Amino acid sequence: MYIVTVTVFIKPEQIEAFKTATLDNAANTRKEPHNLRFDISQSEEDPARFLLYEAYKTMEDFAAHQKTAHYFRWRDTIKDMMAQSRQGAKFHSIFFDNTPQ
Amino acid sequence: MYIVTVTVFIKPEQIEAFKTATLDNAANTRKEPHNLRFDISQSEEDPARFLLYEAYKTMEDFAAHQKTAHYFRWRDTIKDMMAQSRQGAKFHSIFFDNTPQ
Predict the structure, then answer these.
(1) I need a labelling partner for B3 at 20 to 30 A (CA). Which of B26, B59, B82, B98 fits?
(2) pLDDT band at B99 (very low <50, low <70, confident <90, very high)
(3) Is A60 domain-assigned?
(4) Domain membership flag for residue B99
(5) A69 touches chain B (CB under 8 A)
(6) Domain residues for B70?
(7) What's the average model confidence in pLDDT over A32-47?
(8) Does residue A45 sit at the B interface (CB-CB below 8 Å)?
(9) CATH number for the domain including A31?
(10) Nearest residue of B to residue A89, measured between CA atoms
(11) Cα B39 to the chain's mean position, in Å?
């Protein structure tokens, strides 16, 4: 499993618009055959800070995600909503239990 | 959904021992009735950096997790494995799709 995190700081007046754009990206990414997670979370202490947590079967599946229409739409839509550059990090999975409860 | 991330930097010689201790914590936490995720990931660019990504139904469920025997065992076991203090962050969920693929 290949894990990607993205931390985004949004201009306060753009928070709701950012949520709308990112929900579109999340819902469409979840339809990709090799995507396993696309969680969107909002910081408890700073409502302008968001975390995207994405899981793909392989690094190549993430690369394919970055060529989709919904990814480009999200990237372009949120570009001017950010208060600073977004911070991405990539990981290899050590433990990943997808059993629903 | 209540999301917790923990970033941990481990002394290089302790990486395998840290994995073992954290796998024990993850497997036991996944048995908690209101835990939905406990992913362990290792940074692509720095193998001494780990990310724990945890999801609980509510903030109270996370508080209950922090009172379990497996949590205390993990906390005490890894204490001297860390190269610096671990960094935790807490989030409220905006989008959380648990559909398996």
Answers:
(1) B82
(2) confident
(3) yes
(4) no
(5) no
(6) 2-91
(7) 97
(8) yes
(9) 3.30.70.100
(10) B43
(11) 7
The reply to whether residue B19 touches residue A94, judged by beta carbons under 8 angstroms, is: yes
| The pLDDT value given to residue B29 | 98
B92: distance to nearest CA of chain A, Å?
Answer: 5
Any chain A CB within 8 A of the CB of B51?
Answer: yes
Size of the A and B interface in Cβ pairs below 8 Å? 110
CB atoms within 10 A of CB B50: 23
Q: What is the pLDDT of residue A99?
A: 80
Answer yes or no: is B100 within a domain: no
A52, B1, B54, B63 alpha-carbon torsion, rounded to 10°: 140
For residue B98, being part of any structural domain is answered with: no
Does residue B93 belong to the interface with chain A, where contact is any CB pair within 8 Å? yes
Q: Which residues pair with A29 in a beta bridge?
A: none
* Per-residue pLDDT, B101: 59
Could you give the number of structural domains in chain B?
A: 1
Q: Which residues of A touch B16 (CB under 8 A)?
A: none
Structure tokens that stand for B94 in this block: 């905006």
Q: Which two tokens stand for residue B49?
A: 């950096």
What ipTM does this complex have? 0.96
